Amino acid sequence: MIEVIILKIENPDCFWVYITGGRKIVVNEMEYETLQTEMNQFYNKHYQCVDAKPCVLEEGQVCAVYCEELKSWCRAVVNSIISYTDYYIAECFLVDYAKTIPVNTEKICVVIKPFVRLPYRATKFRLYCVKPVTLRVNYYNDNSEIVPANKWDIAAIQYFQNLLNATQVEAKICAVEEDNFAVYLYVTIKGEKVCVNDALVAKNYACYELEETNQKRDSEGGKSRSEEKNPVRLLWPMLLRESKELKLNITTTCLPVVLSNKIEPCSSLETAPLFPALKKVLLRKQFQGPNHVQSYSWPAIARGYDSLIISSESDPLSYLLPIITFLQSRNCYISLSPRQGVTLVICPGQRRAELVFEHLKMYSHCSRPLHPMLLFLGMKKEEIKSVRIPRGCEIVVTTPPIFLRLLEHHSLLFLRLCHLVFDEVDVLFSDAKEQILTILQYYKSNLSVEEKEFVPQQIVAVGNHWDKNIEVLTKEFMNDPYIIITSMGEAAIYGKVQQVVQLCLECDRISTLLQTLDFTPTDAQKTLIFTSCVEERDMVYKAVESISIFCLKMNPGIGFHADYIVEQWNKTISPGTHVVLVLTDDCTVAAKFTDATRVIHFSFPPTPRIFGARLHGLSANFQNSVEKSKAKSILLLTEKNACHVVGVLNYLERAEAFIPPDLYNFTRGVLEAKEEKRSGQPFCSSIKAYGICKNKNRCPDRHRINLQIDAPSKVAEEALQTGGIITILPLFIVDATNYLGRVVGKWGNLYAALETEMKDYYQESSNCTPVDKVEKLAMYGLREENSFHRVQVLDVEQKEEPGAFYNVDIKYIDEGRTGYVQNQHLLSLPEQFQALPPQAVEFIVCRVKPIDNEAEWHPKVSRCINDKIRGKPHEAKVALVLGNTIWVDPVVFTKLQDLKTSINEYNIRSEILSTGLGVDNPEHIQELEKLFNEAEIPHEKKEKHVTPDTKDFHPTIKWFDKQDAVVVKVKLQNISNYNCRIFEQRIAFSASANGKFYLADMELQRSILREESTCVLKGDEPTILLVKVKKEPWCSLLKEKNHHVSFDFDYLDDNEERSPFSSSPKKVYQIPIGVCEEEEEEEEESSKDSDSESDLSSC
């Protein structure tokens, strides 16, 4: 029980309380008072500052507002924004007081992180297990009955309010939902405790829901599972949540899993098949498990079976702990020589191998020490030949290329190998397929060794995704493997589900849906159609029912017709019969249907987990065999789902499904838009260092050169004036090829003079005065031993108390490195010392990269280069300059032999290659120059460029206006290929059709949302959907008149013909102003000149 104070009541399904005691989620009232005092002090002083104002104000945004009634600054959430003549009013909900107040948007401030350290004081509750009722009168039968209703009666709300006037109110949490708690509420009236839920039902103001009533009976006499949940996260402000995921109500005991062999999962650590000493270690570390994946993987691996685990998780403990347990049985390996390792763990990269090795060191000392070894080798043959695996080492962790290099010189080293583990097996096959197959062949060839006849042989593979390479692994190299797939999206690929994607416009989803339905199926067919909300479900239900297909719909909860729906669905149906069930994602658990033959995603699944839950409805028809499965998943992809198109394409490729050509074009457009959206981000560090980025789709940085942002800095530009030969001074070594430092020599004299002046200035103690107030991005002086530096403040730590010391994040602008100092160490920097531009430059050594396609340099080679070059001047030749980065090749250290001659003592690139940890990268500069050449001509100008000999035709274009978008139809047929580029106020369409090339470059009269706009082929005719920035009617499509472009009057006729109510008054369609007077003339000209030659300038 928890004690609460009622703050606000709307109805029994929506009321706000303040939790005062009884559970661990309670926050001391003094903490809220302290928070309120801090907010008032801060915002009373800073609320007029520009930095305190939000850049953009949106509905649902957390902010700080001033409440006139409370005379205090409060935390709030913006509910809505209302526009007036010259200002805006925001309706804000005070999350600590459950009040809604209007606030002028000019008086709204951003809420800073220290003020969201406490959860919201006002908590939203609803009564558990009850719903409103009403009296239904049947005049035909002359009777009445009480039936469930959609909203609460005024009398019921009044009675509920009167009950809550009691002095003591307590609540019992029964369920944690997305934004509220479902509770049993108790009040004490005249010394007697009354359940408010029961009181409403007793007075016939409410009734119990069937499902929740059963849950109530099951929970009597014991603690419910939901009470174990920690609801702190629900109370916390939205801006502290890591991600907003649409929650699917699947209990932990019912999470779906696909198994090739039956496995009894272990439900607790006590029943887990782990070594007792290992369990004690886990308990000491407060291990919370086993989780869903571990409960199935541990029993299979611990019994020595070949196992494949496909899951969205990447926790090494899912396979390490049972393998450690198995290795404790020394008698299993008594026939083997004790000199070599028994287990080999193959990881996709050095960083992942280090993570796995850390877990091994943590858990491998529980009983018999296993002495795990992390194997890392370069290209040096002498180093490889000298490798020795220590006696007693049972587990070796490494990567594919390192293992093969070792195997080349030590072919007998792993004859004792019994357990072969592939960590992130899907990544391994993607990056090193040939190497993995070589390792598997080696393992397979050694199975016949005589001394291994009676020892366990096991292959374990763990990954995130299923693909055809993994299928080869299970069929050719594993012996009756235990396949465990907890991700239903991957299980559908494993089960050979046919994946189909239908591209359509958002407004055409219903017609596309009806086209996908099979009216005359040969076999019995059951179809699940998933929608996003109840309104959408009802719309789809009516559409499907209208074409004479037997259709059912299901309510989000267990409704009055649920038993009927289950009964109808489970009936045995004859061939040629088609049953359709329309439902929302909330119904997936209640339905528990697994025998569907088709799943249609009418609404796009918002998360992979929900996508998998939908596909679980096909699980009874999964079929991992040569035969084609009859299960099919159909996804309707519209312009509103553009952000997911890359993931959809990758999924279809792994499923080996048919991919529509338009999807490739759509994906290219989306990637292009994403890349242009990154135009303000820093240039990708991977492209800088190696010329390529292996993870371009997920990398947040920019992958194109922007000539405005990347214009050479003043210091770098001066370096170019040397003729390409400069002297560099590396002062901070980021890694083996990336350094921060200065250009010295003739151009470094200015900084040397500045350094001397600063030292003389600060020698006088009167000038060494700490600054009173540290400002962000300001420049200050800093003393380190006997030298003085110019620094810039990057960030300032929040001060707990006035006058206290605090840390400041700074950057040494003449060296490039960053660090932390306390505020009292910063000195005032006179103006004359700030005039010289920052001297720090980034240097990158070209044409060398880490071995084995690693993304980062090994610390060993970085330390070697750091010890060799730091603080020493080097001669370098400039290869390329962008922004504040200079690519250099070669870089040599010159030693003066005498006054006239000097020798090159070493070359940095050669030094890196000599370590055996780097390889040649000849494409490095070529890739950078290619990007540079592409950036020389602005993108839009390149499109407008046409050779003088080329002549193009302008297509006929029709358009019509909608409330939130403009639809443009290009009247072309028999198109062989086309391209459409959409900008904020311009579209450029080109296509080849009937042996002619058509081009339309049009400047729009208003701005559009380019990310949401799209171009698709609809009935072999290109249709462009332009989403408006402002939902207002367009008078015309283009800024300038174009006789090839005209308004589509057929759109009005089509809409009138589609109306099912011919007798009702006609709907009046608004024709854009100015269209009527001009379109007749334009249509005549368009019909004559639709195929006439046109110049680009006329567009």
Automatic annotation (TrEMBL):
Residues 1076-1086 have a biased composition (Acidic residues). Keywords: ATP-binding, Developmental protein, Differentiation, Helicase, Hydrolase, Meiosis, Nucleotide-binding, Repeat, RNA-mediated gene silencing, Spermatogenesis. PROSITE patterns: CS. One of its GO terms (biological process) is germ-line stem cell division. It comes from the Eukaryota. SUPFAM superfamilies: HSP20-like chaperones, P-loop containing nucleoside triphosphate hydrolases, Tudor/PWWP/MBT. It holds the Pfam family DEAD. Residues 1073-1099 are annotated as: Disordered. InterPro entries: CS_dom, DEAD/DEAH_box_helicase_dom, HSP20-like_chaperone, P-loop_NTPase, SNase_OB-fold_sf, Tudor. Residues 952-1038 form the CS domain. The keyword Repeat applies. One of its GO terms (molecular function) is nucleic acid binding. It catalyses: ATP + H2O = ADP + phosphate + H(+). It is an enzyme of class 3 (hydrolase). Its EC number is 3.6.4.13. PANTHER family: ATP-DEPENDENT RNA HELICASE TDRD12-RELATED (PTHR22655). This is RNA helicase.
